[in-house]
Design a protein that fits this description.
Blueprint lengths: L24 E6 L5 E6 L3 E10 L2 E11 L4 E6 L6 E5 L3 E5 L8 E5 L4 E7 L4 E6 L3 E5 L8 E4 L4 E7 L2 E6 L3 E6 L6 E6 L2 H4 L2 H16 L11
Antiparallel strand pairs: 1-2, 2-3, 3-4, 5-6, 6-7, 7-8, 9-10, 10-11, 11-12, 13-14, 14-15, 15-16
Length: about 220
Amino acid sequence: MSNFLVSNPNPNNSFEVGQPPNDSVSSLSFSPKANFLVATSWDSQVRCWEITRGGTSLASMPRASILHDQPVLCSTWKDDGTTVFSGGCDKQVKMWPLISGGQPVTVAMHDAPIKEVAWVPEMNLLVTGSWDKTLKYWDTRQSNPVHTQQLPDRCYALTVRHPLMVVGTADRNLVVFNLQNPQAKTFELRLEESIVGNGFKAIERIQVIMRSIVSGSQMVTMITG
């Protein structure tokens, strides 16, 4: 009798959430206060599940969902865990008071799809990055942005660790902002093609630059490839 090696189709004991999206998932975001998971999708929906654990098993319970006019690309939670912000190809950000069961309202607009969104609790502001090559800061109680920052190209990535914010754009640009003075860029870096092709070298270069910024060193404003 022949012995056959049978591969484990689920080595990590993963499970699929109930009522998953009908198209590609574009972003995932866990609540900072509870076991609520939000996913955005190219099917134009934002969905929320409650994730529970019973012993060694996990379960998911669909809680709510909202609809955008076009595919949704990004999401983030407010720091108190009550509200979700989502943005996408309809060029708007919706503020969804999920926990209270309220209806979503539009709180931000761009001239092109919105790729990234971040809530900055230290400033009580929402930051949005778009393919219209701008970064905007929003007080969600007002209809107009409190500040608009031009970017070198289309925004594709954004992360915040206050007081620093790093934005990645098309054409290999990284832009760092000191949020204590958001109108002024701390520095702008364009990664050389040789570095982009070498992941470890790129990470090493970025780490050196970030350490210099944190320590207060003055940096060259731009490095070109």
